[in-house]
Design goal:
Its main location: membrane. The chain is of the alpha+beta class and about 475 residues long. Helices cover about 65% and strands about 10% of the residues. It has two domains: about 10-85, no CATH class; about 90-465, no CATH class. The strands form three sheets. It has a four-stranded antiparallel β-sheet, with no helix packed on it.
Length: about 475
Amino acid sequence: MDPTTHISHFSIEVSDGSCNGTANNVDVDPFMDDEFECTVPLKASSSNGQSINHHKASKPNGVSYYEDSSYSGKPHKAEGCNFYLATELYSVIVSSWCVLRGSKIWWLLPAVIASLVVKALNFSEAWLFSLSLLGIAPLAERLGFVTEQLAVYTGATVGGLLNATFGNATEMIISLFALQNGLIRVIQLSLLGSILSNMLLVMGCAFFSGGLVHMQADQKFNQTAAVVNSGLLLMAVMGLLLPAVLHSTHTEMQDFTSKLNLSRFSSCVMLIAYASYLYFQLRSHRQLYDTQDDADESNEESEEVTLSLKGSIIWLAGLTIVISILSNYLVDAIEEASNSLSIPLAFISVIILPIVGNAAEHASAIMFAVKDKLDISVAVAIGSSTQISMFVIPFCVVIGWIAGKPMDLDFHLFETATLFITVIVVAFMLQEGKANYFKGLMLVLCYLIVGASFYVHSDSTSEEAGKT
C-alpha cells in the first residue's frame, strides 16, 4: 500500500488503562491538523476490508504519526482524526475524574458548592469564611497537580517557571483581593503565616514522621539546595527588618514616605534576586538539584500523565477562576468572621489561613518523608517559603505601587523578629543535611510557641488604619 494513500472510514480501538472505546467510520485526512489524545496502539480496518495495524508515536512538536505494519517505508502523517462527540465527552469525564477525585482531600470539595450557596442566601459571614477556606484547600492542591501536568508538555525550564509562578498561586490570589480591599495587614500577616507554617509546622511534621518510620538512621536530604534557600530567606528577613527598624526608631527622613520608598526599592531588588535564583536552579547549576530531581522521578504518581495539553490549560484556567471567587468571599468575610468567632484577626491570618489553605501540601510533605524522599519534603517546605518571601511579598508591593496602594515591607517588629528567629532556627536544623524525629519535634514545638504568641498578640495597626 502506498504510504500516501488516503484512508477513510475505518474503525479504531483505543485502550490504555484510562481510555477505552471504539470509534467507527472515522474519516482520516492526512492533511488536517487534528490528532488522537491517547498514545496507544491502534487497530484499523480500511474500507476495502484490509486489516492494518497502526501505532501512534508522539513527537516533541505535537505531530503524530501512525506506523503501518502492513507495508515498509516511511510512516505517513495521519492527522485529522475526529472522534465522535461521545468519545470527546468520555474524555472530559475521565479527565474530570482524574483531577477532582485524585485530590488527597477531595472530600472537602462540597465546601466549594456550599460556599456559593451561603453567599447567594446571605448567611452569616462566619459560615462564608469557613466554607470558602475549606473549599480553597482541595482546589489549591489540584492547581498544583494541573501545573505539574502542564509542565510535562513545556520542558524543564518552562515547567520550572510554571511551578514557580503557580506554586503559591492561592496565596497570591488572596493577597491581590485583600490589596484591592485595602487590607494591607491581612496580606502581611497571611503571607508571614505561610512562611512560618511551611518552615516550622510542615517541615517539622515531615522530619518527625519520617524519623519515626526510619528511626534506625538519620534521613538525608540535599544539603546544598537547603543552604541556598536558607541564604535567600535571610535576605528576605533583611528586606523586611530594615523598614520595620527604620519606622520603629523614628529615623525616617520623611515620615511614612521613606519607609514606603525603601520597601519598593527593596522589593525590586528581591525580585531580581529571585529571578537570578531561578536561573541558578533551572539552568546554570541544575546539577546541585540532581538529588531532588531523582527523587521526583522515582515518584510514580508524579510521573503519570493523565491530562492532555489542552486539558491542562483548561483546568488551570478553571481552577484559577474558582479559587479567585472563593478568595474574594474569604477576604470580604474575614473581619466579620474574626468578630463573630471572637478570634484575633492576627491569629486567623497567621495561623488558621495557612494551615487550612495548605493542608494538602502539608500532607504531601509528610507522605514523602515517610517514603524516605526527604528532598521533596524539604523542597515543599523551604521552597515554598522562599517563593513567598522573595517573590509573592515583593510582587504584592510592586502591584500596590502600580495600583496606588501603600503596601510596604514594614511587617512590624514583633512579626519580623518572629520570622528572623524562625529562619535562624531552621538554618541550624538544615546545615548538616540530615533529619531525625527529634529535630522535627523541636520545629513543631517552636510553631506552637509562635501560635500562642500571635493569639495573645495585640496588633497595633487596626484594619481601619490599614485601609485606603
